[in-house]
Design brief:
Chain A is of the alpha+beta class. Chain A is built from 18 helices and 19 strands. Chain A has helices at residues 3-18, 46-56, 111-122, 138-142, 145-148, 171-174, 185-194, 199-202, 247-255, 270-275, 304-313, 316-323, 353-362, 385-398, 410-416, 438-445, 463-474, 478-495; strands at residues 26-29, 61-63, 70-72, 75-80, 86-91, 149-156, 159-164, 210-216, 220-225, 238-242, 279-285, 288-293, 328-330, 369-373, 402-406, 425-431, 498-511, 514-515, 531-532. In chain A, the strands form 5 sheets. In chain A, strands 11, 12, 13, 14, 15, 16 and 17 form a 7-stranded mixed sheet that branches. A 4-stranded mixed sheet of chain A has the order 1-10-9-8, covered by helices on one side. The radius of gyration of chain A is 25 Å and the shape is globular. Chain B is an all-alpha fold. Chain B is built from 14 helices and no strands. In chain B, helix 5 (88-123) packs antiparallel against helix 11, helix 7 (145-159) packs across helix 11 (244-281) and helix 8 runs antiparallel to helix 9. Chain B is globular. The chains are: A alpha+beta, B mainly alpha. At the A-B interface, helix 1, helix 4, helix 9, helix 15 and strand 16 of A face helix 2, helix 3, helix 5, helix 7 and helix 12 of B.
Chain lengths: 534, 335
């Protein structure tokens, strides 16, 4: 028998096994991009997390659906020591890992898996640290887990103790994030023996609501319901990601019934979706902010009164209407109103060109000309930066400030906007990772983030502000934290290193028959609770 | 003949070397770099940046990186993607059949329609058929592919519901890839309706991809035919009293086909360029979309090795086209 026909027969046999027609409850999600891989630890894209972390895996704790509150997951409960330095997690018993054709777990999930998950990212000496050449753990490093975690100990099979170097309140929110999804140590050992370590990234084994079945690159990902799921078992039998990069095509597929739900509709299509009797639209305030960051180290933008005057000159209402098609809330604080700790008592910038002009004169600013940077890419927090820059340009012209709009290729934009001597104000934004205010305020506005490639594009270093948020980060008393963050927002508003522009609304269009989908404020797409009604 | 092929193959070596240099340099000349794009809005500290750059070997002088790349190439190592961390060659081989399938069907459509249209337009020069078809060709040639694809989707998939919107086959069918060609694999799978589904998914994207080559081929055939029709030997053939069918089919068309075949060969490059947009619109998992994604993420290894592979294929196709001249035209064969 020739090679081809052997292969042919083998394939036909496989096909017969795999050919069981998809059962009635197949849920198709038209995802917008391809996952980078299926190991959630080394990657940073939301698309990857939806396909790996959220579908296949669980974390020690998780975000309650639709919120950023923490609830138990693979850890049933946890104790925090008085000094906030020790977290002891009591692990859930009887949780089964998935199996595939090469692996069947011989034991339940336990403390070894937790330690393996963290250590392979933390320690360069771990044999699994670089199990694929060139792999790095960007989230572990950028969330500063390496600086935070001093040690992880196995107390017994079902108890793990984390010791931290300093108290950090957002720690629990960090371990709810996809990059620390719990992977099976036993699976890793099996792969090691078989010499196929890269399968940790190709054929994921988790404890999550769906088992990974197959991935056809750039086309389709298939999952099956995990019947042994420790939580409530999914109501759908099969989950399919149909990768569809173009937003208009995604909508056509949704309308034609080729998929049930899609992310990121184009803002121009919203009205059309609302009018379609077969579709419904879920909307939620996004956990994001779009802003214009001045360079607070360069004259005249080093003066708060100049920044405040310019902020008064921006017609934010017109900007929200034109750039976000009205689907956004005008921002007055650097954190969105859906986040705890939001200070609603703060007064928004008034739109008053006359007063702005007078204030600029009083500050001794004459014939000012400046650059406004427009991002070349679309983001949910900023769907059309060019348009926003043009509006700001015409608003500033009314108060006698001449604006040149500049733009660079995205990578270059990110790089040049980090250069300390940068001229001009930069349009940028942020979408929260874990729902903690610290994830906005520290990352974007602390003194530390103003140096060395950090994300503080205003280079604003207000020691009082930095101290307050540092204190809030180290406190585990929630009410105390709320108070501190409210105070931090007052300091921010006093200085106004940014013009806060908008918090955009997230839309998720789906077919009428879809029930149970809960939008995540973090922009995750999870399907364990969805169902299809006839 | 063998010597002809060998000489042509030898020419490929310096060309390929040139391509490695261009591809390697070109992607690095673009502003922006992969580490910064990975870090995104969050930014990256200088220390961490240096660490990652060192791990990827991007801290070395550029000529060293190039020599390292060439050395690996000679050992058959095309590198790993920075994004997926998978070997470039494996990714290419997974995706390439999809592009070939789409491209082949498109070029068949373009030739089967384009050549007869060109011939008829030439014979009936100045007629309404000539005018309409050549205007149509001009419009087709100038068509923005993205807009055209979306228009067809909205009409045929949205309003008329004759064809599926995108993808290669209905999600109902699930079988492991054997050849990577969906038409063949669906037949092999033996699943009822699979072939039909694969075919229906191919129609719109291949029509969109065929549009520009079809226009070019039709116009080229027309002008080549017009030129040949004025030649002495055609007049002689007519004078001999041969049937118009024989005059056009044997004496004129065969001679007119030489430039047309060159054109068809050159359309391979156009097809690959068109595939980038067509694949993106129709969610077609091929190399066009793969290259675009890699360029926008500055995935250096994928771009430089991907371009090399694509260039090699285009050159081989052109070589085959050169060889087919001989089949059509004995004068070239005997030279």
């Amino acid at each position: 028998m020739s090679f081809f026909s052997t292969r042919f027969l083998a394939a036909s046999a496989l096909a017969l096994v795999a050919a069981t027609p998809l059962s009635a409850k197949t849920f198709v999600y038209c995802s917008e991009g391809s996952p980078e891989g299926f190991d959630p630890a080394p990657y940073t894209a939301g698309t990857t997390f939806d396909a790996s972390g959220h579908a296949v895996y669980n974390r020690l704790v998780q975000f309650k659906p639709g919120t950023t509150e923490i609830e138990p997951a693979l850890a049933e409960s946890w104790d925090v020591s008085e000094d906030g330095l020790t977290y002891t997690f009591h692990l859930r018993k009887g949780v089964k890992f998935h199996s595939n054709d090469k692996f069947t777990p011989s034991r339940d999930f336990n403390a070894d898996d937790v330690i393996f998950t963290f250590e392979r990212q933390a320690s360069a000496d771990n044999p699994w640290h670089e199990y694929i050449s060139g792999i790095t753990y960007e989230y572990y490093s950028s969330m500063e887990m390496d600086k935070l975690i001093k040690s992880i100990e196995k107390v017994d099979d079902n108890t793990v103790k984390f010791t931290l170097n300093h108290p950090e309140a957002p720690f629990l929110a960090n371990v709810a994030m996809p990059f620390v999804s719990i992977v099976s140590k036993e699976y890793a050992d099996t792969l090691e023996k078989a010499g196929t370590r890269e399968d940790l990234n190709n054929a994921p084994i988790g404890t999550g609501p769906f088992k990974f079945v197959a991935y056809q690159k750039d086309a389709v990902i298939r999952y099956q319901k995990n019947a042994d799921y420790w939580g409530e078992a999914p109501k759908i039998d099969d989950l399919v990601f149909a990768i569809t990069p173009d937003a208009s095509v995604r909508l056509q597929k949704l309308k034609a019934g080729e998929c049930h739900l899609m992310p990121y509709p184009s803002p121009a299509d919203i009205a059309d979706i609302k009018a379609d009797p077969n579709l419904k639209l879920d909307e939620q305030a996004g956990l994001n902010v779009g802003y214009l960051a001045y360079n607070t180290t360069v004259a005249p933008f080093d003066k708060p009164e100049v920044r405040k005057a310019l902020n008064m000159a921006i017609d934010k209402k017109a900007l929200v209407d034109a750039v976000y098609q009205g689907d956004a809330e005008i921002a007055k604080n650097p954190i969105p109103p859906t986040m705890w700790g939001y200070n609603d008592a703060i007064e928004a910038d008034k739109y008053d060109p006359e007063a702005a002009k007078a204030a600029l004169e009083a500050a001794g600013v004459k014939d000012l000309s400046m650059e406004v940077w427009a991002m070349p890419v679309q983001r949910p927090y900023m769907p059309n930066a060019r348009r926003a820059a043009e509006l700001i340009q015409s608003d500033f012209a009314k108060v006698g400030v001449k604006v040149d709009i500049v733009s660079y290729e995205w990578g270059e934009y990110l790089k040049k906007s980090m250069e300390p001597g940068r001229k001009g104000a930069v349009i940028l934004g942020w979408t929260g990772d874990n729902g903690d205010p610290d994830n906005f305020l520290s990352v974007l506005l602390s003194c530390a983030a103003a140096q060395d490639g950090g994300a503080n594009r205003a280079f604003w270093c207000n020691q009082e502000f930095s101290d307050v948020i540092a204190k809030a980060k180290a406190t585990s008393d929630h009410d105390e934290r709320v108070k501190l963050y409210e105070e931090a927002q007052v300091i921010f508003k006093k200085d106004e290193p940014w013009a806060t522009l908008a918090h955009s609304t997230q839309y998720v269009p789906m077919r009428k028959e879809v029930t149970g989908f809960v939008q995540s404020p973090l922009g995750d797409y999870t399907f364990e609770n969805v169902d299809l009604t006839e | 003949m063998l010597r002809f092929i060998l000489t042509k193959l030898l020419y490929l070596i310096p060309t390929m070397l040139g391509i490695t240099l261009v591809a390697f340099g070109f992607i690095r000349l673009l502003p922006g770099d992969p580490v910064l794009l990975m870090a995104g809005e969050r930014g990256v500290s200088a220390e961490r940046y240096a660490q990652i750059a060192a791990q990827l070997g991007y801290d070395k002088p550029i000529w060293q990186q190039y020599l390292h790349y060439l050395g690996n190439l000679l050992q058959g190592d095309l590198g790993n993607s920075l994004v997926t961390k998978k070997p470039v060659l494996a990714e290419f081989l997974t995706l390439f059949p999809a592009t070939v399938e789409l491209g082949l069907v498109a070029i068949i459509i373009a030739t089967v329609i384009g050549v007869p249209v060109g011939v008829i337009a030439a014979i009936k020069r100045g007629s309404w058929f000539d005018q309409i078809s050549m205007t149509g060709a001009l419009v087709g040639f100038s068509m923005p592919i993205f807009w055209w694809g979306l228009l067809l989707i909205i009409l045929f998939s949205g309003i008329l519901q004759w064809t599926p919107v995108s993808g290669r086959i209905s999600l109902m069918y699930f079988f492991p890839p054997v050849t990577g060609f969906m038409l063949i694999d669906s037949l092999i799978s033996g699943q009822a309706g699979a072939f039909r589904s694969a075919l229906s998914h191919l129609i719109l994207p291949s029509v969109v991809l065929a549009t520009i080559p079809l226009a070019v081929i039709a116009r080229q055939t027309r002008s080549a035919m017009l030129e040949v029709m004025g030649e002495d030997y055609v007049r002689t053939a007519r004078a001999k009293g041969l049937s118009p069918r024989r005059v056009i089919g044997v004496h004129a068309l065969r001679n007119a086909m030489i430039p047309v075949i060159t054109t068809i060969g050159l359309q391979i490059g156009v097809l690959l360029a068109g595939a980038i947009l067509t694949e993106t619109i129709f969610s077609w998992p091929g190399i066009g979309k793969w290259m675009i994604d890699s360029i926008s993420r500055r995935d250096y290894p994928v771009v430089q090795s991907g371009l090399l592979l694509i260039a090699a294929i285009v050159m081989i196709v052109n070589l085959i086209v050169d060889l087919t001249y001989g089949l059509i035209n004995p004068r070239i064969r005997h030279k």
